[in-house]
Amino acid sequence: MSQIDIKSPKHCANKRFHFNKKLFKIISTLIFSILSLTLLIWFLLHPSNPQFILQELDIYQLNFTSPHVLNSSLEITLEARNPNQKVGIYYDELQAYASYKRQQITLDTSIPPYYQGQQDSNLISASLVGNGLPVSPSLGYELGRDQASGKMILVVKLDGRIRWKVASWVSGRYRINVKCVTILPLTPFNPRGYMNSRQGTQCSTNL
């Protein structure tokens, strides 16, 4: 009579355990290799942060309808530069707004997403508006004091996400915060606006 080989449930369980362990090692090795390659590319290329310059800012309206309600209308032109020779940049979900005395004085304005090639530069124009925007009552006093001094400090901010592109590889999204501080001379209304700045203000960029 031939011998019948009957495997016990414990033997089958051990076999499945060794198979799952081997599969886990293969997947872990693959993931580790991909991450290592990504980090190697990152450190070799070492992409620099994009650079922003506030080329022009025009204010067409900045007044109060009550001590704590502000109306504002601004036009901005920003220049975005990619200083990298081998890395492109995708700009996603960009939002621009203006603030004065640490208070937001316009609503968020969306900037259409776009791609920027190596060492390219692009101009970004946007209208920043805030109608009936609630603000601190002290803001009117601060504005009056600045009018007496003949100048005011205004901040333009740009928040969003970027992705790096190297050949066909595209990174995940990284949050970007841009801050442009400009000093505006307070002048009466003129054909181009209430006050304007064309100083080419260098902005700070944080990732």
Automatic annotation (TrEMBL):
Residues 77-180 form the Late embryogenesis abundant protein LEA-2 subgroup domain. It is found in: Membrane. The chain crosses the membrane at residues 23-45. Keywords: Membrane, Transmembrane, Transmembrane helix. It is a single-pass membrane protein. It holds the Pfam family LEA_2. One of its GO terms (cellular component) is plasma membrane. Coiled coil: none annotated. InterPro entries: LEA_2, NDR1-like. GO terms for biological process: defense response to other organism. This is NDR1/HIN1-like protein 26.
